[in-house]
Here is the input.
Amino acid sequence: MNRYYVDLHIHIGRTWTGKPVKITGAKSLTFTNIIEHARHEKGLNMVGIIDSHSPEVILEMESLIQSGEISEHQDGGLIFGDLTVIPGSELEIYDEQSNGPIHLLMFFPNLTIMREFSSWLSGHLKNIQLSSQRIYVTGLVLQKKVKDLGGIFIPAHVFTPFKSLYGKGVNKSLTEVLNPDLIDGIELGLSSDTHMADQLGELHKYTFVTNSDAHSLAKIAREYQVMAMKEPTFLELQKALKGEDGRHIIANYGLDPLLGKYHKTVCAECLNPLNHDDQLCDQCGKNKVIKGVADRILELKTADTSPPGRPPYVHQVPLEFIPGLGPRLLEKLVNHFGSEMAILHEVPYEALTEVVPAKIAEFIMKAREGNVTLAAGGGGKYGKIAD
Here is the structure.
């Protein structure tokens, strides 16, 4: 088996003609820019681009195939040198079974199937061009369609307070809205980790994935996983998510939940941290609350330990969180050492100090070892390294 760095949740901001896809995504997030940045700057081996249902994005991918810049692998996936692209989609359901909107990820092996899925979608949502659109079918209908097409189905960022399975969508159980047998994995999101998620016993049967949900090039690979696969293809990804034939996730790498935007419960008006039972904010007196992921998981808790064989979750601080490491210095590091993956995992302290000040090199090493002090985030505001 080989080791591969994988991030399965990257948005497209604009098409190659400049039309918006993910409204909140950066204009620089075109398909071509993403694959070049993910390969050359981040050092990833597999990415899921989850706005690939947009017709103009499909046209761009087909054009790159025709020009020979990318190719389709017989086992699924688009090959760009040593990077494999898995075309996918993020959609929103809000049916009569759910309490609120829920975001879901689905992935397909090739453009023929993605085009078929896009054609089907166009009859069930308002704007096929855009990302994360609400689809007017039930979650069960969507799951069946994905599986009929041989796709992968994963609920997205399942604990975030807005537009997620447990944050808003269900009272207690995913079975309220989805068929548990048609789920291939669970995406944890930035404000939770394996230990937190495994407090829900019904999740013990699923593989956890950690992805960036990138809305800009810089955010790609802020969370990712290392997978053991024979080669980076769609078929191998399916096997790794199921733990089949020796394929598996070696480790999940993600933010310490304290760095996530929704870890703590806060006042919705002034973002003052609140205790779980607080009804009024002692700062502004308002009674609107954004419930943090940690408190929501405590409400749902049914288990105390993780199941046997769960991969380790490594708390990792993205380089953009390192105090003093701005875009220019980061670019200098990447140019010198080849990729962010190399800097995060491999480059020794002495080599780092040849490129950046010793204090920044020390922060990078402490972050690699999990020895940094963190201030928790909440209410849409990221946590930070306390320097």
Q: What stands out?
A: The chain has two domains: 2-255, 319-369. Residues 319-369 form one domain. The mean pLDDT is 91.
